[in-house]
What we know:
By secondary structure, the protein is α+β, with helices and mostly antiparallel strands. Helices cover 30% and strands 20% of the residues. The protein has 3 domains: 4-78, Alpha-Beta Complex (DNA Primase, Chain A); 94-167, DNA primase DNAg catalytic core, N-terminal domain (Alpha-Beta Complex); 176-286, Dna Topoisomerase Vi A Subunit, Chain: A, domain 2 (3-Layer(aba) Sandwich). The strands form 3 sheets. The chain has a 5-stranded mixed beta sheet.
Amino acid sequence: xxxxxxxxxxxxxxxPEDYDEFSIRCPFHDDGxxxxxxxxxxxxxxxxxxxxxxxxxxxxxxxxxxxxxxLEKLLVDSxxxxxxxxxxxxxxxxxxxxxxxxxxxxxxxxxxxxxRGFSEETLKEWGCGTTEYNDLVxxxxxxxxxxxxxxxxxxxxxxxxxxxxGLKKSQVIFGAHKxxxxxxxxCITEGSLDTMWLNQKGYPSVAILGATMSRAxxxxxxxxxxxxxxxxxxxxxxxxxxxSKAMLDISTSFMVSYIKMPKKYxxxxxxxxxxxxxxxIAKRHYW
Length: 287
């Protein structure tokens, strides 16, 4: 029997714990309302916007743009035991952790990432590397700085973001291991590049690696030493819904605020002007 939850995790789709059926933003169209429903118990999917429906094998062939033979190999590989407790040093050896970091050359970085304003210092600070396809690989660490996986930002492939095998995004907060000193505030973004961008501009930041926040991630946020969290989610409908839910989840323990960007900006990484970014964060809104 296929473990669809593990297969989906291996292909970069976060699967919420204890849910047999859930909704995601459809990867086949510009989706702001999470219109794609997945049932891992039945192995089925449907996009209510009309992109298609059927078996999860059909979904993955479409999602990964692969043929039947390639998909069957992926399904076989996903049934192997790669389970590691990321929060227990006694379980995972250094060699096992390093396997999570996709093969990448950390001595250089793709030119396109510099065109987006990132500096060499930032990419080195975060331990980024480059694949043979000129993709950017970003390592992911847990709260104790253990390497637990990686995310690859691809330039000529779909989906754009691929996560390393077995990584449970809902169990980690990207960048949390860097916050070793108390902070007056910490920005929360959806994606790793958004957090790296804010960090480069002098704003302490972490990422939840998606538009939803799990109970495990909330526990990690509660453990960080800060007075306030500033929600810097994407400037779309899904991001706005995520702000509303996060405000409810976090506000019981911290002061929580959120930013509003001009409509032409999709996310904080699009805001290249330091003056505008400073203004947007300074004029943040409180619930």
